[in-house]
Specification:
31% helix, ten-stranded mixed sheet, alpha/beta
């Protein structure tokens, strides 16, 4: 890369061949895990699993991240483009329903030549699984290379996004990013097996003591984009076991049934289609084992 990095909205402007920016990674691809994963939304996991590639580093580093080892500590092995291409193709050979790039934001433009090379060899869709804090220019560079966009829409409140993700402008940035994703994939398209081949799924994680903000997020999305252009995945998997939550007392508990179900009621009232999670999903057991060598 050897140029000043502006791949994400942080636009740190560092030379990642010499140092790291907010995301915490250098110019090589830091990969923590590559394996079939069965705990995504049903239309992503299917019956054989999603071919997930978990990248190290993150441009948000949320205080409550369940993949803390990756987002905050940038755990993983550094691989070059040739090795990453082989990882992608190996996952397809193992029967993955899709190639699922998890937290790829800090590598967005670096992935363009890799995906251009590998895309003609793939018979499965490419999923871009991200935190929603994306550069529109980087998303445009990926046009034609990504089939399914799987962003978070984490916050409405500027105060919350600053407190937990050091990103006061999160909502406006995520709105612009989602608009671009929907331009590229305006309607869900399904395969014969029921898995998503093209489209957008928006994830929102309900946080403790933030029920009102979650409701604002849903009302904002419905007003801005409607409720039929994308699928909504309303997550109930927040767990307080991760060390990053320590400075925030309000995050030291699980989401209550009332908090989640009251947000779900608004989602149903607004007419969103998509997915919900039971309370059993709020467990660290659903977090992948990043100590296992899968590369």
């Amino acid at each position: 890369m050897s140029q000043l990095c502006t791949q994400c909205p942080r636009a740190c402007g560092v030379d990642r061949s010499e140092t790291v920016g907010f995301c915490g990674v250098s110019e090589g691809f830091c990969v923590a895990r590559a394996a079939l994963h069965h705990w995504e939304e049903p239309i992503i996991s299917g019956t054989r699993g999603s071919g997930t590639v978990f990248f190290g580093g993150c441009n948000l580093r949320c205080a409550f991240c369940q993949n803390y080892e990756l987002s905050h500590a940038a755990k993983g092995k550094t691989v070059d483009g040739a090795r990453l291409t082989k990882i992608f193709l190996d996952l397809q050979e193992r029967g993955a329903h899709n190639l699922n790039l998890v937290t790829p934001t800090q590598y967005a433009r670096q992935l363009v030549p890799i995906l251009r090379e590998v895309k003609p060899l793939l018979q499965i869709p490419v999923v871009y699984n991200c935190g929603g804090y994306e550069s529109v220019d980087s998303l445009r560079a990926l046009e034609g290379l990504v089939d399914v966009w799987l962003p978070d829409f984490k916050y409405y409140s500027r105060e919350l996004s600053m407190r937990y993700s050091a990103a006061e402008d999160y909502r406006t940035v995520a709105e612009a990013a989602l608009s671009e994703m929907l331009r590229q994939a305006p309607r869900p398209v399904y395969g014969e097996d029921g898995t998503l081949q093209r489209g957008v799924i928006v994830r929102h994680l309900v946080l403790p003591s933030s029920r009102a903000d979650s409701i604002r997020v849903l009302r904002f999305l419905a007003e801005r984009f409607g409720t039929d252009a994308f699928l909504l995945s309303l997550l109930n998997q927040y767990t307080p076991q991760f060390a990053a939550a320590a400075p925030y007392p309000e995050l030291h508990r699980r989401v209550t049934t009332f908090e989640y179900e009251s947000v779900l009621a608004v989602a149903n009232e607004l007419g969103f289609e998509g997915f919900l999670q039971g309370r059993a999903s709020a467990s660290a057991s659903y977090t992948p084992d990043f100590s296992e060598d899968t590369l």
